[in-house]
Amino acid sequence: MNKSNTQQQQIQPLTCHGHTRPVVDLQFSDPIADGPLLISSCKDGNPMLRNGVTGDWIGTFQGHKGAVWSSRLTRQGHLAVTGSADFTAKVWNAYSGATLHTFQHDHIVRAVDVSGDGTRIATGGKEAKLRLFDLFRPDAPPLEAVGHTAMIRSVVWDDLRHRLLTAGEDGLIRIWDLRTMRHTDTITCPAPISDMTLAVDRSCLMWTSGNTANFWNVDSLFLPTLLSSLHHDDITTHVLQNSLSSVSLHPNHTTFAAGSNDDLWVRIHDFATGEEKEIYKGHHGPIHTVSFSPDGEILATGSEDGTVRLWKTGPTTTSYGLWKSNNSP
Where would I find the WD repeats (predicted)? Predict the structure, then answer.
């Protein structure tokens, strides 16, 4: 690395308190009038909504009776969706905090996502079953699809390509046609998948499997079986030192952030080479989730220590919370 210890120590995050147990999932909304929103999932069962620029607390969604493993916001930030160990997925009004719908499942709901127009949600979890709920007909039975042989850890709604993607502890990523709910393709990974999301511009699917950080150009038509090579057709795989919990690609596609359950540090890597460029030190527990803001100027991280931290990723022309822009006095 070219960064000295002094330079690394100058990276001071904003620390967002409020949770009482480990923070396991984070997601930014698209930019809205006052900047993006940030939602956090926590084992304390109380997902929180924050201003994604300042980290200021906006509200807590209260109603789950178990750990909340996954939370997603609509692009406009008007609805939130959460999945919990209490066997439910809930849909919330993000302005008032009111519960709009509760969808009962037969086991832990580990993953949720919401369509771009905010009219449908998808869930997955311990049952290894994909479910699709219509918010215009919340009392109707969900559409269901089966294919995984172990718990579904992540669900991704890819509106632009009319498909859903699921990732499981069976080491498989399955692609489903939204119009038919049929399985169309599979990516096989060398280890269980712990995290999978779309990049900010929705052009790249990223996931972690063992000690690999993986990036797939989702516009490609060819889906090869994932191998351990650094580059394999349209999938780029970086083999890193630690077992990974989460990755996030910077919006400019030059770097990516990685969190691990093996240590307390957030690591920034060069996307082309996988070289470690920076280390962010500040958490007091393993890193469970990392997520870049839509403009890439903030990295949000969640940890076993129960905090969310916001890191300024470089020089900026915008003031963020306690940080001032280069043009500020």
Answer: 61-102, 145-186, 280-312
How many domains is the chain built from?
1
Hey, is 57 helix, strand or coil? strand
Contact 192, 206 (CB under 8 A): no
324 lies in some domain: no
Beta-bridge mates of residue 15: 309
pTM of the model: 0.90
Q: What is the CATH number for 243?
A: 2.130.10.10
pLDDT score, position 157: 95
Residue 203 lies inside a defined structural domain of this protein: yes
The DSSP string of 78-106 is: SEEEEEETTSEEEEEETTT--EEEEEE-S
Q: What is the dihedral of CA 34, 43, 296, 174, to 10 degrees?
A: -120
Q: Is residue 320 part of a domain?
A: no
- Give the residue-averaged pLDDT of 50-70: 96
What is the rounded CA–CA span in Å between residue 53 and residue 38? Answer: 9
Q: How confident is the model at residue 303 (pLDDT cuts 50, 70, 90)?
A: very high
Confidence band, pLDDT 50/70/90 cuts, at residue 228: very low
Its domain, for residue 162, covers: 5-312
